[in-house]
Amino acid sequence: AQSVAQPEDQVNVAEGNPLTVKCTYSVSGNPYLFWYVQYPNRGLQFLLKYITGDNLVKGSYGFEAEFNKSQTSFHLKKPSALVSDSALYFCAVRDSGTYKYIFGTGTRLKVLA
Amino acid sequence: SQTIHQWPATLVQPVGSPLSLECTVEGTSNPNLYWYRQAAGRGLQLLFYSVGIGQISSEVPQNLSASRPQDRQFILSSKKLLLSDSGFYLCAQTGLYGYTFGSGTRLTVV
């Protein structure tokens, strides 16, 4: 069965510092991996995805994520955090053989000025 | 480009009243459609998904139902709302490479 874990409920980081939001997954086939961001009372917005190819994926707003097959991880990173990056971040996985996407429980990122 | 329209944006309903939330999509045909609920601003729970007209899969037993009367229309319903139905409801559609989400409906059952 598919599953996704975001082990941190909240991540605090100072503005200008690098940030990492962690995600690990479990699928039986090949994973399709995604990161989404949600601002208060809004729908989710797509940040980036990994389907195949380069393990380092670059996305919107300066975010990137690294697919690590051996560790079954897809951590979200940004070299220099902005206060405006403060939001709720969701990792999602889809097994290549199914229609269903499974979301993690979300990690609240707080960037402090 | 693909667009999802979801309404209403907010809704306050008394316990025991019916519910109908509508979602329509543009810019694609035969989309896979999904209803999610997000409680207390956290994790997303998949409620229903549909791969075609009249085809509904339910992920969790609950007080809600879904219907897909047209290719680009997905409706979430309840005959009698419970307090526990309060939450933020999101419609989504997907192609091969990820989701597009609607803007959400915040439902408060009082």
Describe the model.
Chain A is mostly beta strands. Helices cover 0% and strands 54% of the residues of chain A. In chain A, strands 2, 5, 6, 10, 11 and 12 form a six-stranded mixed sheet that branches. A four-stranded antiparallel sheet of chain A has the order 3-9-8-7, with no helix packed on it. A two-stranded antiparallel ribbon of chain A has the order 1-4. Chain A is globular. With 110 residues, chain B is mainly beta. In chain B, a hairpin with a 2-residue loop joins strand 5 and strand 6 (55-58). The A-B interface holds A 32, 34, 36, 40-46, 49, 51, 88, 90, 92, 99-106 and B 6, 32, 34, 36, 41-44, 46, 49, 51, 88, 90, 92, 94, 97-104, 106.
Write the layout of secondary structure elements.
The complex is a heterodimer of chains A (113) and B (110).
Chain A lengths: L2 E3 L4 E5 L4 E3 L2 E3 L4 E8 L5 E7 L5 E3 L5 E5 L4 E6 L8 E9 L5 E3 L3 E6 L1
Parallel strand pairs in A: 2-12
Antiparallel strand pairs in A: 1-4, 3-9, 5-6, 5-10, 7-8, 8-9, 10-11, 10-12
Chain B lengths: L2 E5 L2 E4 L5 E8 L5 E7 L5 E9 L2 E4 L6 E6 L2 E6 L8 E9 L2 E4 L3 E5 L1
Parallel strand pairs in B: 2-11
Antiparallel strand pairs in B: 1-3, 3-8, 4-5, 4-9, 5-6, 7-8, 9-10, 9-11
Summed up, what is this model?
Chain A is an all-beta fold.
Using brief descriptors, characterize the structure shown:
heterodimer, A: 113 residues, mainly beta, 12 strands, 54% strand, globular, B: 110 residues, seven-stranded mixed β-sheet, four-stranded antiparallel β-sheet, 11 strands, 61% strand
